[in-house]
Design goal:
Elements lengths: L1 H23 L6 H12 L3 H12 L4 H14 L2 H30 L21 H20 L2 H24 L5 H32 L8
Helix pairs in contact: 1-8, 3-7, 4-5, 4-6, 5-6, 6-7, 6-8, 7-8
Length: about 220
């Protein structure tokens, strides 16, 4: 639990620092933002753009929410347990999304120039909604795998989910609709929520074990 609390604090601090840096420039991009954006605009073969659009589409709309529900159904035990876990996973995602919108409208960072977009986008830029949403869902899927699969398989599934989330975030930069710091902010935001949720879950499980200790001397 100590590691989770430290991780949550570190992620929150890094997200707060990055947000402060973005606000300090009134949303203006940093040099790294402009360099990555310029490279993306200059390297867009048709096949790569089509692939990026396909990947980025999985980071919004019904797909993430369906995955969150599926993660809960997989992680739960018994009929009632599955329904509660699915409702909890969906509620977690919705709550995190609601708070993200507060940050997004408070920071109100403009997106890159519309002429550079290779995909449609709405709203302000920071933090990236696609990056945050896919990372949150990847965490939920990794949690479901950890609850149900053998350790080796769970690590594999978690790695695949993480790779998907990273790919979604990178497509937002490649398609020209986000600055790199928007995507980094989305990832840090999601990691803050995931590590904090892990800490809360571990603390709750520890309390349950203390109240109902396992009898080691008999069945």
């Amino acid at each position: 639990m100590i590691r989770l609390s430290l991780a949550a604090g570190l992620c929150a601090a890094l997200f707060g620092l990055l947000t402060a840096l973005v606000v300090a420039r009134h949303g203006a991009p940093y040099g790294l933002d402009e360099d990555w954006h310029r490279w993306s605009v200059q390297h867009r073969p048709c096949v790569a753009v089509a692939l990026a659009r396909g990947i980025t589409a999985t980071g919004s709309g019904p797909v993430p929410y369906a995955c969150a529900i599926a993660a809960g159904l997989i992680a739960g035990r018994g009929r009632n347990g599955r329904l509660l876990a699915a409702a909890g996973a969906l509620g977690f995602l919705l709550l995190a999304q609601g708070v993200r919108y507060l940050f997004m409208y408070e920071v109100a960072r403009p997106r890159p120039p519309v002429a550079d977009w290779a995909a449609l986008a709405t709203g302000f830029a920071y933090p990236s909604g696609h990056a945050a949403t896919s990372a949150l869902v990847a965490g939920l899927l990794a949690w479901a795998a950890w609850r149900t699969a053998p350790p080796t398989a769970a690590r594999l599934y978690g790695a695949l989910a993480a790779c998907w989330a990273v790919a979604v975030g990178l497509t937002r930069i490649y398609l020209g609709v986000h600055w790199p710091t928007d995507v980094l902010g989305g990832w840090l935001y999601a990691l803050t929520w995931l590590t904090a949720a892990g800490f809360v879950a571990a603390a709750a499980e520890s309390r349950v074990r203390m109240r109902h200790p396992v009898d080691r001397l008999g069945p």
